[in-house]
TrEMBL record:
GO molecular function terms attached to this record: ATP binding; GDP phosphatase activity; ribonucleoside triphosphate phosphatase activity; UDP phosphatase activity
Gene Ontology process terms (BP): CTP metabolic process; UDP catabolic process
Transmembrane segments: 551-575
Keyword Transmembrane: yes
Family membership noted in the UniProt record: Belongs to the GDA1/CD39 NTPase family.
Active site: residue positions: 164 (proton acceptor)
Compositional bias (Low complexity): 673-693, 719-735
A Pfam family assignment: GDA1_CD39
Biased composition annotated in UniProt, kind: Polar residues: 663-672
Cellular component terms (Gene Ontology): Golgi apparatus; membrane
Keyword Cell cycle: no
Record's protein name: Related to YND1-apyrase (NDPase/NTPase)
Chain sites annotated for binding ATP: 196-200
Length: 749
């Protein structure tokens, strides 16, 4: 189905999100969408806003929102270069289904699980770095910048089993509408997940302890809801790992008790007469013979299988922090009078595919079905299996996929189907032991699995009943309504919640549970980041040839940078000569005036080292700074750059014009001048700027300043002369001045 067009009403104010679940056996892309919260807030009543955003598939046909590829991402640990081609089908599918003009606003995540966790740290980093590079170079989707969380921030990373469990817990309770009323007292569902390597639990205990994880979401009305959830993962307690431990114990037990090395061993957890060649994988085997291949022959006794697999729970393992349920891991006591659980993955497959008992769990029915199946001869099981293939009744692992779509049932591969049938007896026994011996769920409850506590009936129960769910203590499921239960849905619920603005005044951002620090805002704040952001946002409006990227940056942004550099270079070349002349003129004027002012401040006619206008020491420095600032301002004034006509001077001749103390111009070269006297005292020729042969614009700039200076200097000399020369007779003072070569100052006669 083609993606919606830009004018499709379904697309109006719609947001999108992408999650790639990089599992151990393959990678699956999930496309989600939700409406912009700002638009929804204008359409609903206050009561209707007391819920989370509605997250749904990104396509009208749900099947178009999912694609899966094989093998797992972890297989590229030793060859990261092949990741580009590996991810290409998934990204192309996302590009085809999400409208191009929304790519820059669509967050893209690749979150790796069990398979990647087993790789060495250097291989993990190499794989994630290549994934990040591919996202930046070949997509325009929104990816976070480098941060302590990873090369692409939290967009590309390995999530822990606990984080995966919390995402699943959010997904289940979101689909059950447990968050809709926003009440902290609402009973939420617990989440159970069992894979091949591990099993997980996430639930909200009645008694609050310090080891709970805070899950915070934001409703459409801008109010936050908070739940404190316990989450734990038991590695080695998945069905496949448990089976491997069981086989090792079985072989070692037989060799220790019977004292012989018989290669044929009876196994009550296999259908009757089924033979399987297996060997112990334990490091500490009872004897070297234990590691050799043994033939296990099924006896089909479900009761014995329960008894022999129960010790694998390790309930007697040391518990460092009580209470512990099994495996030495601290777990709060579960109150099954109010707590109800939903199980996914192996809980569903082992119940529904073979026993047709998916949904509400009833121990009695489950035990009867398992006992019957295990007691059958293997030949009859295979015969029934062939019949179901012909009738097309076998689902689940019997599905065959082409391009991520289910195109057939019961013919996915006889090896896979047979393998599930071979281990069904053990898996059924292991699930029973986990539920009842491990988590402590009671075996016998009210008929139908319902609790007799009517106080537990609330909004969540009514919502569950409306979706076809009763109120059992435990039920297995793979979907609720038409939506599959996956942890990726829980991740997208958080992303949709992040976009809602708080109305309570608390601006603390919504972030993923167990994340050590909040997500970095993917909207960049630097100038280059803004160009990159808007370049990605607008690139879809450009021709196809300009919609690509170059080294992770949109081509349009690269062109903008080049254009900016070209404009700056053009401006520089055009103004190069004028800028050089202005700079030189500024330096010349500033340097000459500083030199002139320094000369005038060094000596005075009365021999004092103080400034004529500062009768105390230290005043000359402040005056120099003021004059320096004034010289800069005068150089920048337009009037100083254009000389006045010669008519400005009385007789047109100003080659040796100097201002008198009273502001008039003196034509007499013998007239006293402070600067001339200072130069003559040092025995050096006056600078050019003081000889009368300087440009007219410099003279004009100097006339007002010189007039002011001589006025103040004359006043100071008069005061100094009165205070110092008055101590001598007038004839003696004149004699002293004549010896120094100075003229009697005007006004002193």
């Amino acid at each position: 189905m083609p993606p919606p067009t830009q004018f499709d009403p379904w697309l109006a104010s719609r947001r999108f999100g992408i999650v790639i679940d990089a599992g151990s056996s393959g990678s699956r892309i999930q496309l989600y969408s939700w409406r912009d919260a700002r638009i929804v807030q204008t359409e609903l009543s206050p009561a209707g806003l007391a819920t989370l955003p509605i997250v749904e598939t990104a396509t009208k046909d749900p099947e178009d929102s999912i694609r899966k590829i094989e093998p797992g991402l972890s297989t590229f640990g030793t060859d990261p270069e092949g990741i580009f081609e590996y991810l290409k089908p998934l990204i192309q599918h996302a590009k085809a289904e999400i409208p191009p003009h929304l790519h820059a606003e669509t967050p893209l995540f690749l979150l790796a699980t069990a398979g990647m966790r087993l790789l060495p740290k250097p291989q993990q980093d190499a794989v994630l770095r290549k994934v990040c590079q591919y996202f930046r170079d070949y997509t325009t989707f929104k990816v976070e910048r480098t941060s302590p969380l990873g090369h692409c921030g939290s967009s590309v990373r390995i999530i822990s089993g606990e984080e995966e469990g919390l995402f699943g817990w959010i997904a289940v309770n979101y689909l059950m509408e447990a968050f809709s009323n926003g009440s902290k007292d609402a009973n939420t569902y617990g989440f159970l997940d069992m894979g091949g390597a591990s099993t997980q639990i996430a639930f909200e205990p009645r008694d609050q302890t310090s080891d709970l994880t805070r899950v915070r979401l934001r409703l459409l009305n801008g109010k936050d809801i908070t739940h404190n959830v316990f989450v734990a993962t038991w590695l080695g307690y998945g069905t496949n790992q448990a089976r491997a431990r069981y086989v090792g114990n079985l072989i070692d037990t037989v060799e220790e008790k019977e004292g012989h090395h018989d290669s044929i061993i009876p196994d009550p957890c296999l259908p009757r007469d089924l033979k399987r060649a297996e060997s112990s994988t334990r490091n500490k085997a009872a004897s070297p013979h234990s590691h050799k291949t043994h033939t296990l022959v099924g006896t089909g006794n479900f009761t014995q299988c329960l008894e022999q697999s129960a010790p694998l729970l390790n309930k007697n393992a040391p518990c460092q922090d009580i209470p512990c349920l099994f495996g030495g891991k601290k777990t709060p006591t579960i109150d099954f009078s109010v707590s109800r659980f939903v199980g996914v993955s192996e809980y569903w497959y082992s119940s529904e595919q073979i026993f047709n008992l998916g949904g509400a769990y009833n121990f009695v029915q489950y035990e009867q079905a398992a006992t019957k199946f295990c007691g059958q001869e293997w030949r009859s099981i295979l015969a029934h299996h062939e019949w179901t293939k012909k009738k097309g009744r076998l689902g689940g692992d019997g599905e065959i996929e082409e391009d991520g779509k289910v195109v057939g049932l019961g013919v996915w591969g006889s090896t896979v189907e047979t393998h599930r049938l071979e281990l069904q007896c053990f898996k059924a026994a292991w699930i029973v032991n986990i539920l009842h011996e491990g988590f402590g769920m009671p075996r016998v409850v009210d008929p139908g699995g319902n609790s007799t506590d009517t106080s537990a009936v609330n909004h969540v129960d009514h919502s569950a009943e409306g979706k076809g769910f009763k109120r059992p203590l435990f039920q297995s499921a793979d979907s609720i309504g038409d939506t599959a239960i996956t942890w990726t849905l829980g991740k997208m619920v958080i992303e949709a919640s992040k976009e809602i603005k708080s109305t309570t005044g608390d601006d603390t951002p919504i972030m993923d549970p167990l994340q050590s620090q909040p997500d970095f805002d993917r909207m960049p704040t630097s100038q280059s980041g803004l160009l990159d952001y808007y370049g990605r946002k607008w690139s879809h409006r450009l021709p196809t040839s300009l919609q690509g990227e170059m080294m992770g940056v949109p081509i349009i942004v690269v062109l903008i940078y080049i254009a900016m550099l070209a404009i700056l270079a053009f401006i520089y070349l055009k103004l190069k000569k004028r800028l050089r002349m202005t700079f030189r003129r500024f330096l010349r004027q500033t340097g000459l005036r500083i030199e002139r002012d320094d000369a005038m401040e060094m000596q005075y006619t009365n021999g004092s080292s103080y400034s004529p206008i500062s009768p105390v020491a230290g005043g000359s420095m402040a005056l120099s700074l003021r004059r320096f600032a004034a010289s800069i301002m005068s150089a920048l004034q337009p009037s100083q750059r254009h000389p006045r006509p010669p008519s400005y001077y009385p007789d047109g001749d100003h080659s040796d014009a100097y201002p008198r103390a009273n502001g008039t111009v003196s034509r007499n070269p013998n007239t006293f001048s402070e600067a001339r006297y200072s130069e003559s005292s040092r025995g050096s020729s006056p600078p050019r700027s003081l000889t009368g042969r300087r440009p007219a614009d410099e003279i004009r700039g100097a006339i007002p300043a010189k007039a002011l200076y001589n006025s103040l200097s004359s006043l100071t000399r008069t005061q100094n002369s009165s205070s110092s020369l008055s101590l001598y007779p007038r004839s003696t003072a004149s004699s002293l001045l004549s010896r120094s070569g100075a003229q009697t100052p005007v006004g002193d006669s």
